[in-house]
Amino acid sequence: MIFKWLNKDKKNVPEFWNTYVNLFKNSKNTSITESRFVAFDTETTGFDNDKDRILSIGAVSLQNNRISVNNNFEVYINQEIFKAETVKIHGILKRGSLKKISELEAIEAFLDYIKNDILIAHHARFDFRMINSMLLRNGLGKLKNEFIDTAVLYKKSKHIIYQDNLENYSLDELAKELNVPVVDRHTANGDALITAIVFLKTLSRLKTKKQNLEWDYLLKT
């Protein structure tokens, strides 16, 4: 359930990368209730982490079972690679009126937001691969954060949650199953918020079944 990417430190990297890496030198001994989580999502030009690019990153933080909706994160990234056919999904135009920044600026802002906290994403390996490809393109290492995949969390917990008519454990399926409003779907910020609510509702159902929600449970799922 919680995975950790290995990272090889490199010389001659921006100071913000060293600041980020240094956050992981001391291990955390924080309970789930007290920990800060960051739910995030990416909108991309496609599914190939080598050829495609991230168009936007959205994130929202959670702590003490509360979502900090007023402290969310969202950036749009300038792109040379662009696929017009994907605009109908994410609505992001190559030009348009949205303020866009470089990949390196987006990386710095994102790492400053997530710090060394636990990341949450739906079908998380895709988003992590895309972020890591962007990091490597800019001469940096991979993400060091531990992360939770809400699809895996729900799937592993289905024997506790009873009802399970889902086929692909898509974000839409989980939102419907858990009665989560689907607002701003297929925007990075909107999907990050939906993912955060799905995470909290899944944990709430597990608590109802009196499951141990400390680190040992999450590490086993």
3D architecture notes:
The protein is α/β, with parallel strands linked by helices and 221 residues long. It has one domain (34-220): 2-Layer Sandwich (Nucleotidyltransferase, domain 5). The protein contains eight helices and six strands. The protein has a six-stranded mixed beta sheet with strand order 1-6-5-2-3-4, sandwiched between helices.
Q: What does the largest sheet look like?
A: 6 strands, mixed
Widest beta sheet: strand line-up: 1-6-5-2-3-4
- Which structural class do you get from the secondary structure elements? alpha/beta
Strand content: 15-25%
Domains, number: 1
Task: Indicate the mean pLDDT.
Answer: 80
Report low-confidence residues grouped into runs of 5 or more.
Answer: 3-9
